[in-house]
Amino acid sequence: MSVPVMTVPGEPPAPVSSAAVRATGLTKVYGSGETAVHALAGVDVTFERGGFTAIMGPSGSGKSTLMHCLAGLDAATSGQVWLGGTELTRLRDDQLTRLRRERIGFVFQAFNLLPVLDARENIVLPMQLAGRRPDPAWFDAVVARLGLRERLRHRPSELSGGQQQRVAIARALLPRPDVVFADEPTGNLDSRAGAEVLDLLRSSVRETGQTVVMVTHDPTAASYADRVVLLADGRPAGEIDRPTAASVLEALRGLGG
Amino acid sequence: MLSTTLAGLRAHLPRLVAATLAVVIATAFVAATLVLNETARATLLRAAGAQYVGADAVVTARDGGSLAGDVATLTALPGVAAVDPTATADVQAALPGRSAAYLQVGSVAADPELRWQRVTAGALPDRPGELALGLPTDAEVGDVVAVSVLDPATGDVTATAEATVTGLVDLAGDPAAGVYAHGYAVPAQVSAWGATDPTELRVAAAPGTDPAGLVATVAAALDGRDVTVSTGEEAAASAVAYVTGNRLALTAVLLVFATVAVLVAGLVIANTLAVLVAQRTRDLALLRCVGATSRQVRRSVLAEAAVTGLVASTVGVGAGIGLAAVVSALVGTDSPIPLEGVTVPLYAVAAGLAVGTLTTLVAALGPARAATRVAPLAALRPADPAPLRSRGGLLRFATGLVLVLGGSALMALGVVMAQIYPALAGGAASFLGVVLLAQRAVPPVVAAAGRALGRAGGLPGRLAAGNASRNPRRTAATATALLIGVTLTTAMVVGAASTRATAQAGLDSAYPADVEIGAYGELPSSLLPQLEEVDGVAGGTALAGADLTGPDGQPTWVQGVDPADAGAVLRSTADLPLPALGEVVLPPWAAEVWSVRDGDEVTLTAGANSRTLTATVGGDASTPLLYAADLRGLVPDAPAATLWLRLADGDGQRDAIAEVTELTGAAAPDAYVTGLASERAAIDQVLDAMLLVVTGLLGVAVLIALIGVGNTLALSVVERRQENGLLRALGLTRGQMRGLLAWEALLVAGVAAVLGVLVGGAYGLIGTASLLGGQDVVVVDVPWVQVGGIVVVATVAGLLASVLPARRAARTAPVAAIAAV
């Protein structure tokens, strides 16, 4: 999908780089005056295309807020977010909604699926909302890779937690989004199902070049990523390349988390 | 716990407004019905029982014998101030330039205490030769009325007199006032005009005498006589009871609607409180966490309901009394059900308060139980909307089925027997069954309609269909509230239309001519052309009359009619067959007298002329009818004896009749004018009023049900916050979210409206068939436009109800799906 590059007169043209998502000077303040809480206190971060990045940090570090702002789910107080060449922070609600369903995939911790729709309907939901037809070959490939072929007619209540997350991943991958955001995707799963989900996310990055950004507090989950971005008190607090569970744990301990 | 309850009430005030409104409307309806009933009774008591209300004791002869000899006895009793023997005389009276009409003349009491007439102009007569007339009348004070005294046995005029009108008496509210004319004269004049002996005495008590004691004294004095002694109030009440049969039926009908309003309100309140409990799951769970027992939680919810119910029903009773006052002012005293001011009985207030509060409390039982099931841990973990499972569903289903089948059997019986009572009982039972079955029947229908919608409405349509059939119990409750309103409205509309059609058909055949002008002698031939000129007269035909000698050798009055002319004038010839050339139509009495059967030959002679005609027996005509040319063949100069007129349809009929009456009176003083046009208009008026009431009911029912639909959707929005957040995150625009809720509302409301129209239409037809089964012709009339209108109104109302919840849903932040975790 070709992405039009938006330029703003009087400002430097948008950088056309390999970055899938980029944020500069991002702040998010809840409340005002004395009681103001700075959930994000100036974050500059870049996520490369085709990378699998984990955002980590102790509770209250702002990692979920960061993801919400990056994904256009929540409005930042100041700063800019770029998805490819599009500046999210300039879009109105309807434009953001359309952008989300066309260019962003989501996997949440829980309540990922609509209970009234079966697995197939849930998978194609964002594309249907956008009025697009999924490419049948690609649909079959995604469904086969996630092992859902036998489950397409099942409702969420008839699926296990791991199966539900796999349906959510299929839904996220189907529109070939610019980026998939996963928010604690293994939080509600046992360790075996969790490992399966993380394997699937990693293989989608390796095999199809999908960009994935995952928020997690679990060092083992983070070790599946190519890179870990650490956050503390709403500010970046270092990065780890090729993380292992041990190196992540070590870094977190250094943050006091 | 009470302070928590009150704090909760304040916090949820906006949502409670909806529940309160439902209670207010239902309670107002109940209170208004009872107040109007009491007002109508009081008005009638003052009007129809006017002559008794002011008396302290009333003596009535049970055998109709004379009480004239007892006046002196009673006057002499201690504690009796005055005794008035009530005398009436029946006379014919004619205003200047008018034809004579029946006038009932009553006596004016000698004692001012016992004079009950409300004089609006002039004064009551105080000497013979004077007359006061009851309103409505065209007479004015100072007019001179020609009075013909009739022989009670033969009806012949025995004397004529003149009387000056001295005053006009207001009879407003007395149903008998419009039926025939009333006059009042001094006792001497009344007896001079042929009054019979008094059969009723009205007694006034001396100052300081107890009326009950007076009744006892009078009764003791008349011991052994066949008389009834009662207080004035009692006599008035029994006089009222004599004329109020229909009004009581109307009260019963209104109370049925009040019950319906209460039922619908109950369903709405139950839904609203369920919304409140669901919204507060976390609050309630937190209360449990910090130590509130489930009993305390239940008490808190019930206390909230009790306060809401009490406040709302207080407002409702006030609103109901206000409504009754407005209705009373609008209806006034010039109507079939006269109303004057408002009479507020204590029981109406008490009943309104009790019904409103109890309904709210009963409706709160379910939500209160749900509240006690909130686990303390719910405060700590994500909300998990567990679908409600219906328990006792089988029992409900079986009960519903039994009621529907039994009720249907009773209704069938009612139709067959042409009796409304079994049909009413069957209708009530089967409707209760329908409401119970709705829990089972509505969800599958909604699901089926949803599948069709899913194909037509795209993704939001399919999601809405899924959502609507997701909580069958709640969907059923919402739909039922609307179903009840739609069913009853449709039943009334269809019933009223069929009743109107049947009544009109009956009137048309019983009274085929709008206006009939007859004379004992002859009518001037110039009269018909004159009358045909009158504005509002569509056409007319004249019947010639003559005495012919029949087979029994006796002269018999017959009339000749031109069927071509008459056919255009008459509204129906079902009960009035017209003769063809060579035929004579014989009413059954003539056929009997002449010993003639259908198809026999009948020879009629007039002087030297004679004709043999074929007899057709039947019809309601008062005289044998000949073909006009046949009659002219026998009596060439037979004069016009009867005129039939047809009036143009519309509002001007009353004026047309007045002008026709006046012209006729001037041209032929002894002619009489009768006609059904005014009765036809009266029936139309009553049915129109009924339909207006029904429209009002539709308003009430739809309004309450609308609140219910809105609340159910609001509950859905609350429960599906995460789901809606997810949809927003995945790319559902705000417009699509609003569409989703609109489809859901449309689906539930549409299904309820269509089911309601089907069931209600059946009830309307069954009701008409059993109520009017005794009539010759039952005309079934389904007013498709109105019925279609009901479906549209109910569905659009449901759609409107989705507006606010949809706005709320559209505002759901996409992060809600994640943030709530």
UniProtKB/TrEMBL annotation, chain A:
The keyword Translocase is annotated on this UniProt entry: no
UniProt superkingdom: Bacteria
Domain ABC transporter: 21-252
GO molecular function per UniProt: ATP binding; ATP hydrolysis activity; transmembrane transporter activity
GO cellular component, one term: membrane protein complex
Keywords: ATP-binding, Nucleotide-binding, Transport
PANTHER family recorded: ABC TRANSPORTER RELATED, IMPORT ATP-BINDING PROTEIN
Descriptive protein name: Putative ABC transport system ATP-binding protein
Automatic annotation (TrEMBL), chain B:
Cellular component GO terms, alphabetical: plasma membrane
Membrane topology: Multi-pass membrane protein
Protein origin, superkingdom: Bacteria
ABC3 transporter permease C-terminal domain boundaries: 256-374, 697-814
Coiled coil: none
InterPro entries assigned to the protein according to its UniProt record, in alphabetical order: ABC3_permease_C (IPR003838), Macrolide_Exporter_MacB (IPR050250)
Subcellular location: Cell membrane
Chief localization: membrane
Family from the record: Belongs to the ABC-4 integral membrane protein family.
Keywords: Cell membrane, Membrane, Transmembrane, Transmembrane helix
Name of this chain's protein: Putative ABC transport system permease protein
Entry's Gene Ontology molecular function annotations: transmembrane transporter activity
Transmembrane segments annotated in the record for this chain: 16-36, 248-278, 305-332, 344-365, 394-414, 420-438, 476-497, 689-718, 739-764, 784-804
Family annotation (PANTHER family): ABC TRANSPORTER PERMEASE YTRF, MEMBRANE COMPONENT OF TRANSPORTER-RELATED
Protein source organism: Geodermatophilus nigrescens
One Pfam family per UniProt: FtsX
